[in-house]
Specification:
Blueprint (H helix, E strand, L loop, with lengths): L4 H24 L6 H8 L6 H4 L3 H21 L6 H14 L1 H10 L4 H24 L4 H20 L4 H11 L3
Helix pairs in contact: 1-2, 1-4, 5-9, 7-8, 8-9
């Protein structure tokens, strides 16, 4: 069955707005990016964005969800790799969108929507990590501490520039049984 042209146009326009916003958020920063600038880059009138997104935070959350979906698909393809290699891949993926990560952390206390998204993200990631640790043979009583240490490790590795060898060494140490 053919798609409704109006629906297709709406989806395409929404993707164009998201693409423009993503590029600007990554290159210029969230705070430096106005909705008018996003509209200009997307080729729409400024008020058009509000037909698709309630505000800039909702636009950011939609971009974050799209990024998460895309990255998760890539992660699934790495199941044959060991846990250290998968964690290093995750860190590299976060580095690609570091500006978005920084924005989320900066907006936690000013945007209830971003805060909720962040909490849900951590629940998802921590549950995935618990599964990874269980499958890797980590003793049950050590899993919760290892989950927290892994989260802090990832956040630390994002905040500090280290060589690939240093990152590998740290992640290997983290997952010693």
């Amino acid at each position: 069955m053919a798609r409704n042209k109006r629906l297709q146009d709406r989806e395409e326009k929404q993707k164009e707005i998201m693409s423009a916003a993503r590029t600007l958020f990554l290159n210029e920063g969230y705070d430096a990016t106005s909705m008018s600038r996003i509209a200009n880059i997307a080729g729409v009138a400024p008020n058009t964005i509000y037909w698709y997104f309630k505000d800039k935070d909702e636009l950011l959350i939609t971009i974050l969800n799209a990024e998460l979906t895309e990255r998760f698909s890539g992660y699934i393809e790495l199941q044959e790799k060991n846990i250290v290699e998968r964690l290093l891949w995750v860190i590299d993926q976060f580095k690609l969108v570091k500006q978005l990560v920084t924005t989320v952390h900066a907006r936690l206390h000013v945007s209830p929507e971003i805060n909720i998204w962040h909490e849900r993200f951590h629940i998802l990631v921590e549950n995935l990590l618990r599964q990874e640790l269980q499958q890797s043979g980590v003793e049950e009583q050590r899993i919760e501490a290892k989950v927290k240490v892994a989260i802090f490790t990832v956040e630390g590795l994002l905040a500090h520039e280290l060589t690939n060898e240093e990152k590998h060494s740290i992640c290997s140490e983290l997952f010693k049984l």
